[in-house]
Amino acid sequence: MNQWLWLIPGTPLLGSLVIALLGGLLRREHIAVLACLAAAAAFLVVLLAWLAGAASQPLQQTLYTWVAVGDWRPMFGFMLDRLALVMVSIVSGVGLLVHLYSVSFMAEETDQRRYYFFLNLFLAGMLLLVLADNLLLLYLGWELVGLCSYALIGFWYRDPVCSNAGRKAFIVTRIGDTALALGIFLLFSQFHELSLSALLTDAAAQWEKGSALATVATLLILGGAVGKSAQLPLQVWLPDAMAGPSPVSALMHAATMVTAGVYLIARTHPLFELAPQTQWLVAAIGALTIVYGASAALAQIDFKKVLAYSTISQIGYMFLALGCGAYALALFHLTTHAFFKALLFLSAGAVIQASRDEHDINKLGKIGHHPPLARWTFLAGAASLAGVPVVTAGFYSKDAILATAWSAPAGPLLWTFAAFGALLTAIYIFRVYLIVFHGAAPQTSTLSLPYPMSVPLLILALLSIISGFIELPEGWPGPHLWSPWFEEELGLATFPSLTITYMLQLIAALLPFIGMGLACVLIRRERANQPLPLANFLRCGWNFDAFYQATLARPYYALARGLRGIVETLLIEGALTRITCGLLAFATFCRKGVEYNVLEVSISRLVATLRFAYTLLGTTQNGVLSRYALVISTGAVFFLGYWLW
Amino acid sequence: MYWLSVLIFLPVLGALWIGVIGRNKTDFTRWAALAVTSTELLIALGLWWNAAPNAEGYYYLMRVPWIPAMGIQFLLGMDGISLLLVLLTALLGPVAVLVSWHAIKQNWSAFAALLLATQTGIMGVFLSLDLVLFYVFWELMLVPMYFLIGLWGHERRLYAAYKFFLFTLTGSLLMLIAILGLYFIHGEQTGIYTFDYFELLQINLPGKTELWLMLGFFVAFAVKIPLFPIHSWLPDAHTEAPTAGSIFLAGLLLKTGAYGLLRFCLPLFPEASLDFAPIGMTLGVIGILYGALLALVQEDMKRLIAYSSISHLGFVVFGIYAWNQEGLNGAVLLMLAHGVTTGAMFAMIGMLQERSGTRLLTQLGGLLSPLPRLASLLLLFTLSAMSMPGLANFIGEFLVLAGVFQISAGFAFAGALGIITGVVYLLWMYQRAMLGEITVQRLWTDLNRRETVLLGALALAVLWLGLYPAPFLDNLQIPVTALIEAKNAVPTGSINALR
User: Fold this and answer.
1) pLDDT tens digits for range B177-208
2) Could you tell me the pLDDT band of residue A591, with boundaries at 50, 70 and 90?
3) Rounded CA gap, B91 and B298, in Å?
4) Last residue in a domain, options A517, A542, A567
5) Residue A631 contacts by C-beta under 8 Å, 6 or more apart in sequence?
6) Beta-ladder partners of B196
7) Is the residue at A181 inside a domain?
8) A136–B398 CB contact, under 8 Å
9) Which site among A67, A188, A568 would you substitute to test the B interface, given the most B Cβ atoms closer than 10 Å to its Cβ?
10) A170: Cβ–Cβ under 8 A, 6 or more apart, which residues?
């Protein structure tokens, strides 16, 4: 199996290559089928990897040395351990479903070639990121994912809103990427090594717990993770990313892109364990982002923006778990979230498309003709997101994180944030469900969805419900398969004592129901035109955009313009002009002063002197014979006299 | 090896041939120029194929006495660094001819002759190892380039050509003085008056003298690279030059400056260069950020790419003065990558201008729908310019930064800001030119076969450099090791002339 590992990122990559180079020869539908086949092939290889026992024995493959300069020797090498195995399963599985869904959803689009090229590349980039066995290859996948998000968010490029959103996503995540790059440089300068496994063992061996270098290195890695996973303070790109097609949002929020940061921290967790301060910071960022995202989602009127802020908030839970050292639980929530968030986006997409691209939830409620399947699957996703106890997957994964947060340093504080976030989650998701699907208009639609759309929705709905049963909460009888399976690689989470755990579980189980009630209250108030206090502030995502615009974007442009005006025009060009003018003035002076006054005058004097001499001499040969005779005779007399005397 | 002189003289002979019999035979001239440049490329590839280094890492050497009385020889040599740059020069030759195919409307034979003469000059610069010979070629490439800009350029071509000539000439005069200084000091010390590079490498200079001589060389190279604040000729020259001229300027002429640093400044004056390294790195980082900032506020696409060249060459200088394995390898690889990427960018802007009649971003927009092929290739090269992993610029840039990080984390941090600033201006450019609603309705024609083949070849080069740079990096092992040995040979605690 080892030698086939490259096929996992390779098949979607090949798919995108074929689409890019030969897409012009294919018909539109065939391009879609080709892309789906590529995604399916990747998923198939992942399944084969499971069968081949990748779960018990990590698989490895090295293709070739990418760059070889001294110790800087990144390989094109892949490693498939349990962490990577779970990730590639989710990425390729959800990716396949999204591809399938796109076949119908994007059928009317003219530019299928571009869409499927980037969709396949997106998948390939994420799979590459997950499978990379060294930091540089990981960075390649990391950037590829960023590029594809740029291209797909801005897919409808004619609309400046879309292309601006794509550009914003790329630039904001690039800020994080730069931090990650510096982290790579730091690790390399310390250990002269890029391979992940070697780096992590070296670091554990050479760095002491809490050492400054470890802290700096983990902070830089965290910077990268925060950018890609849209956590505070780099979360601003994600809400705008809604400008892309719905399947893209589903892919980006569930499987590729935003989970990359979580994966990165889980992958480098030995480093984070050497830097307890950073690790706590991860938890704190997570806790803050939970409340941030959930509160902003509360006031949205754009259907997809609710889900976008919800993603920010849910990734916050994963960060909280990472910060508490519960890496397996973070991954558990990542998995269930991938299912229910993809489900929510895809069903929301179906609803929006059926209503002629209407995004406003109030208007959607008034239209009311929503495909029933989309409604039920959305409800399943919403229940899972809210964590309705016992029957949904979201309950199991979120509950475990809440419980483990309690035992972290300053745990009760973190828990309070997380629990408050859980309450808000229930409120906003049921608010949006009730407004859209129980609006003014009666639900009489019998609109059915085509199979490529309905099958993924049903599969995801099923997974959103049952995937939690793999790991029941701490202290419950029943299967506990997830955490122990990961114990070797990621360690075990710590939980508070059993009584406290039960208490916390009880509270967590009650929160969704309280949230549902509050959602009804909220809707009633909104219908009575009494919106939330601070609704505008929340809707704008706490005005982060305006803040960054004022403090970063505008000053940057102003600096550039200032440099163009002052340095380029005034100083450099000015100095040049001055030098040229000076030279010209000097030349003029030379012409006037030296050339004219000195040279001209002296030359003309010389000429005058010569002319005078010439006239003098000229008189000696003026042709008057008598004067010649006189001069000759005078001379003769003179010489004669001299000679005789 | 007489092949080296073939490399140098083939283009100029071609230029004579075309110049003499090509008048008013435009079609013939085009094909003849293409034939000459392609032959040149084939020869360069053949030399690469057969390269086997001697102990000093030189693949080919050629030594013929020229003016023995003054110790001037016709000494050519090719090591790994010059091989790579010769390859780049040979590659951009056919590219420059092909992009000018229909763009140059008048006097094709003179144009082709000047283009080929420039190529001779550049080849000579990369191959000569006698300082007088080097100086001759250094000046030689200037003259035809001056006429290329001045005769076939755009609106402000005369001003730009004049400025270009003055700047570079001033710099190179300082270098001439330094060369003569080196010659006489070496003569006095050893009794052998020679301009031979290998002889001069053995020279032992007192601190202050070494610094001044180094500065003489440095200024000449800094003008060419160009470094802030003597970059002012570059945006004008790049913008006003015809497309082929811009390709040669950005792709090759700028590289001669960086090559000069590697070939002469560092090995001849290791102590002074080591003292100078922090200043060099500062100038590099200023270039990176300044170029990126200025590129953001340009309306003319060519001017924008010109400023981006300042930014990228800043990285090259950054890596050179980091003076370690990663830095030097990265700098040379980035030179190649920048040559290909920026050459392609200028070619594409030329094609855009042929179609739309403008290079102004304010008048372009929405061209992705009528010109999908052009737009996707432009995206590829734009991504390479913003150092997307897997494409050409990335490996060079990352190596440079990794190298600098080992010298100073602060410098690396400042340079890494260039990763962000690059994205900002390049994406803004791409969006304004290609995305949005189309502004001008006309009959657009996408890339034709000649253009597709040309850009496809460059795209392949970009991917090759980005995914499998080993065939290029292998050539750098010996020269880079030699440079690092020169650095390590500097006695620690030697008198620091700068302090």
Assistant:
1) 999 999 999 888 888 888 988 888 888 888 78
2) confident
3) 29
4) A542
5) A620
6) B130
7) yes
8) yes
9) A67
10) A146, A147, A149, A150, B423, B427
Contact B232 A576 (CB under 8 A): yes
- A554 and A524 in a single domain? The answer is no
Asked, for residue A126, whether it belongs to a domain, the answer is yes
**Chain B positions in Cβ-Cβ contact with residue A70 (cut-off 8 Å):** 325-326, 329
Tell me whether strands B58-67 and A59-65 are parallel, antiparallel or unpaired.
Answer: unpaired
Domain that holds residue A505: 298-542
Which H or E run contains A408? none
Same domain, A243 and A125: yes
Regarding whether A558 and A537 lie in a shared domain, the answer is no
- Chain B residue numbers with beta carbons less than 8 Å from the beta carbon of A67 are 395, 399, 469-470, 473
B377 phi and psi, to 5 degrees?
-70, -40
What's the rounded Cα separation, in Å, for the pair A491 and A483? 8
Q: Are B340 and B273 in contact (CB under 8 A)?
A: no
Same domain, A133 and A257: yes
Q: How confident is the model at residue B169 (pLDDT cuts 50, 70, 90)?
A: confident
Whether B420 and A175 lie within 8 Å, measured CB to CB: yes
- Please provide the DSSP assignment of A536-582 as one string: HHHHTTTTHHHHHIIIIIHHHHHHHHHHIIIIIIIIIIHHHHHHHHH
In a domain? residue A644: no
Chain A nearest CA to B276, separation (Å): 23
Q: Determine contact, residues A276/A192, Cβ cutoff 8 Å.
A: no
Q: Is A634 part of the contact surface with chain B (CB cutoff 8 Å)?
A: no
Q: Which residues of chain B does A112 touch, with a Cβ-Cβ cutoff of 8 Å?
A: none
Distance, CA of B29 to chain centre: 26
Q: What is the total count of domains within chain A?
A: 3
Residues A246 and A337 in one domain: no
pLDDT at B495 over 50: no
Q: Which token pair is B77? A: 């040599």
Which pLDDT value is given to residue A453?
86
Residues A474 and A610 in one domain: no
Task: With CB atoms and an 8 Å threshold, state whether A139 touches B389.
Answer: yes
Q: How far is A157 from chain B (nearest CA, A)?
A: 5
Residue A521 exposed, middle or buried by CB count within 10 Å (0-12, 13-18, 19+): exposed
Q: Are A330 and A266 in contact (CB under 8 A)?
A: yes
Q: Which residue matches tokens 């000494």?
A: B75
pTM equals 0.90
Q: List CB contacts (< 8 A) between B372 and chain A.
A: 114
pLDDT at residue B124 in the model: 92
- Give CA angle at B357 (B354, B359), nearest 5°: 95
Phi-psi region of A10 (alpha: psi -120 to 50; beta: other; left: phi over 0): alpha
Select from B163, B369, B420 the Cβ nearest to the Cβ of A174: B420
Q: Which of A177, A178, A564 comes nearest B297 by C-beta?
A: A564
Closest-CA distance, B110 to chain A, in angstroms, reads: 31
Judged by a CB distance cut-off of 8 A, whether residue A24 touches chain B is no
In this structure, is residue A246 part of a structural domain?
A: yes
Euclidean distance between CA atoms B183 and B134, whole angstroms: 14
As for the ipTM of the complex, it is 0.91
**Residue of B363, B345, B132 lying closest to B238 (CA atoms):** B345
Are A314 and A374 within one domain?
yes
Which of B369, B399, B434 is closest, CB to CB, to A72?
B399
Q: Is the peptide bond before B226 cis (omega within 30 degrees of 0)?
A: yes
Reading the block at residue B277, the tokens are 């390294």
- Give the 3-state secondary structure percentages of chain A, helix then strand then coil, rounded to 5: 75, 5, 20
A355 and A439 co-located in one domain = yes
**End-of-domain residue from the set A542, A572, A589:** A542
